[in-house]
């Protein structure tokens, strides 16, 4: 367990990246021609943006990739001084090994200040002959239009359950992890399209128990078992408020969840209840109100119990 599995099993080449076929096909064309424009990668966390950036550099530059590639995290280095200092210093030096250009990868570029983005725009133009930028962000709307217009935009999508399961199974086989099939399904559910979260959760679970079951997965992931949440809601709809409240206590203590954590799972569980669409709409509307109150600082226990009470009242009206 000395190595971090997300790094140990990170794809080294573009064709090893899973779940982003529409992106990889376009990027491969750049690698084959050994040329590319500035790139903007946008999408949720853990779907392969950083991996694709590293794979491009390794395939284009070979053994010299470390000298022609620099990675900056814009959330840590987000001011204008970084653009004027580190980036310009790296950009003005000639590429190594006879390469045509170098690559500057800026992760979480949507955290850059407006002034830093304005300065970056000019830097991208000035050094475009010997330097290419890859900007990675979760929300492209936070990148100013002049930068977006200078980049080829690639939109990454959350990974499918099949992609997650296949990659996890590869790691399970390589590391000889003893895990139940339903626990693998639990990992996929917990990940919600995020490969990094799935692999990290698997490694943590493997370090805790020699045999991994469903309970282990949910205890280390910061999520409750969906079946337990669903059962709590069904108890409330059936009129058993005290039982539902006790189950809420058990879930929050067992899994160490906050009010905001549990309200998100309650929201997801509404779609598994055997109630009409109209009733689901009313429940979601009420849940949104409760969630807003919790975020604004209201007592989370009172608000969660108020939601259970609302379910009891709905059940009494003949759902």
Structure notes:
By secondary structure, the chain is α/β, with parallel strands linked by helices. The chain folds into three domains: 151 residues, P-loop containing nucleotide triphosphate hydrolases (Rossmann fold); 61 residues, Helicase, Ruva Protein, domain 3 (Orthogonal Bundle), CATH 1.10.8.60; 91 residues, Zinc Finger, Delta Prime, domain 3 (Up-down Bundle), CATH 1.20.272. Helix content is 57%, strand content 10%. The chain has a five-stranded parallel β-sheet with strand order 2-3-4-1-5, sandwiched between helices. Helix 4 links the parallel strand 2 and strand 3. The longest helix has 19 residues. The model has no long low-confidence stretch (mean pLDDT 87).
Question: Descriptors for this entry?
Answer:
319 residues, alpha/beta, Rossmann fold, Helicase, Ruva Protein, domain 3, Zinc Finger, Delta Prime, domain 3, 5-stranded parallel beta sheet, 15 helices, 57% helix
At the third CATH level, what is the topology name of the largest domain? Answer: Rossmann fold
Biggest β-sheet: count, sense, barrel? 5 strands, parallel
Outline: elongated
Radius of gyration: 24 Å
List the helices and strands and how they pair.
Layout: H1 5-8, H2 21-33, E1 38-42, H3 49-61, E2 69-73, H4 80-91, E3 102-107, H5 114-126, E4 131-137, H6 145-148, E5 151-155, H7 161-175, E6 178-179, H8 181-191, H9 195-208, E7 211-212, H10 214-221, H11 226-237, H12 241-255, H13 259-269, H14 277-295, H15 300-316
Parallel strand pairs: 1-4, 1-5, 2-3, 3-4, 6-7
């Amino acid at each position: 367990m000395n190595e971090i599995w997300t790094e140990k099993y990170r794809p080294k080449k573009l064709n090893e990246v899973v779940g982003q076929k529409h992106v990889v096909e376009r990027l491969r064309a750049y690698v084959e021609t050994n040329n590319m424009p500035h790139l903007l990668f946008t999408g949720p966390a853990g779907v392969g943006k950083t991996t694709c950036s590293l794979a491009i550099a390794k395939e284009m530059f070979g053994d010299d990739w470390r000298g022609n590639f620099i990675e900056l995290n814009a959330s840590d280095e987000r001011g204008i001084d970084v653009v004027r200092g580190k980036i310009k210093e790296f950009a003005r030096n000639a590429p190594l090994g006879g390469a045509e250009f170098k690559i500057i990868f800026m992760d979480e570029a949507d955290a850059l200040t407006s002034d830093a983005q304005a300065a970056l725009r000019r830097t991208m133009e000035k050094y475009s002959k010997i330097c290419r930028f890859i900007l990675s962000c979760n929300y492209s709307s936070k990148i100013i239009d002049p930068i977006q217009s200078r980049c080829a935009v690639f939109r990454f999508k959350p990974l499918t359950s099949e992609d997650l399961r296949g990659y996890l199974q590869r790691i399970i086989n390589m590391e000889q992890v003893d895990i139940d099939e339903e626990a693998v399904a639990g990992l996929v559910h917990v990940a919600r399209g995020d490969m990094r979260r799935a692999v990290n959760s698997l490694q943590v679970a493997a370090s805790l128990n020699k045999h991994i079951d469903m309970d282990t997965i949910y205890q280390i992931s910061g999520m409750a078992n969906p079946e337990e949440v669903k059962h709590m809601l069904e108890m409330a709809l059936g009129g058993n408020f005290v039982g539902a409240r006790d189950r809420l206590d058990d879930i929050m203590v067992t899994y160490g969840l906050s009010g905001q954590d549990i309200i998100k799972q309650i929201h997801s569980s509404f779609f598994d209840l055997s109630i009409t669409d109209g009733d689901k709409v009313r429940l979601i509307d009420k849940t949104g109100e409760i969630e807003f109150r919790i975020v604004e600082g209201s007592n989370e226990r009172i608000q969660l119990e108020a939601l259970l009470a609302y379910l009891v009242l709905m059940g009494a009206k003949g759902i």
